[in-house]
Amino acid sequence: MGPLEAMGAAALVIDAADGTILGATRHALDLLDQPSLISVHDLVARGIVAKPDLVRLLDWIQDRRRVDRRSGSAASVETAHSTTGRLRVHRPGRESIDVDVSLVYHRRPQHDAEAATVSLRPVDRGHAIDLDSIPQELWTLHDVQMRVIATDPRLEEIGISPASQVGMPATTLIHPEDLPGVLDPVNAVVRGRARSAQIRVRAAITDGAWQQGTIELRRLVTGDGPLILSVMRFERPGRRSIPRDVLTARQRAIVAALFDGRRVKEIAATDHVSVRPVRNQLAAVYRKLDVSGQGDLLATYLRPHE
Q1: pLDDT tens profile 206-217
Q2: In three state form, how does the secondary structure of the chain look?
Q3: Which of 102-106, 129-133, 293-297 has the lowest mean pLDDT?
Q4: Domains in the chain, start-ordered, CATH in brackets?
């Protein structure tokens, strides 16, 4: 549970067969106001969660297991299923709270392992996230098992320790409802059927919130075998993507440099040209995108990826 602890996650890992708790982060125990838990059934026995609520979650896990057995996938193929819900948590001597639940059932037959991870997030009805403080894009490097081997140091800016992610599955920060749409394109890139893929998902950010964005996956061939580069690009409310076929490659590069905070003189110096050609390109960009100037461009659109 070390990486989950470092992330500040409130999470339980349970045996999918009988509900035994295989691990619990300190944050989960604090949230539930419990010094320890042996089984999820303890939550009902101690009056923390209503029995119908717990039964509903456990029934869902057993249903996913039956689906795998009927399809035959449980015998040979790694599978993951996910759902979300909400629980009312009653804590002795403290106020009751509503908790959003993300439940992921994961089976890895090659390791004869199956478990369900339950992530708990208190419902915050009044907190607002400053979306402008979130980096527009973050990268992660994975092995062919889609385990993290290196990650963007700017993860710190969304409240996640980069070191805590090393060794974790790529799906850790993806919203459970989006996982079914992620598995097929990821497998296509990992197995070499596709060199790249783009997937629109919600990703975890500061304070347990989720932010919409697009993950671009690229398969990199190295001397030690293939690696998978993942780039998460967050969307900003009120801003939209620049259609790829509207601008030339040169214009997209100039616009990207503006989003990176570079001035026109710096762009020109880097490209060994005078300022005038760069300004001419920008004038064409403003005309094509129907914006009045640089400020309007940055406020209306997202940074293009070149």
Answers
A1: 555 677 788 999
A2: CHHHHHCCCCEEEEECCCCEEEEECHHHHHHHCCCCCCECHHHHHCCCCCHHHHHHHHHHHHHHHHHHHHHCHHHCCCEEEEEEEEEEECCCCCCCEEEEEEEEEEEEHHHCEEEEEEEEEECCCCCCCCHHHCCCEEEEEECCCCEEEEECHHHHHHCCCHHHHCCCEHHHHECHHHHHHHHHHHHHHHCCCCCEEEEEEEEECHHHCEEEEEEEEEEEEECCEEEEEEEEEECCCCCECCCCCCCCHHHHHHHHHHHCCCCHHHHHHHCCCCHHHHHHHHHHHHHHHCCCCHHHHHHHECCCCC
A3: 129-133
A4: 2-122 (3.30.450.20), 131-234 (3.30.450.20), 249-300 (1.10.10.10)
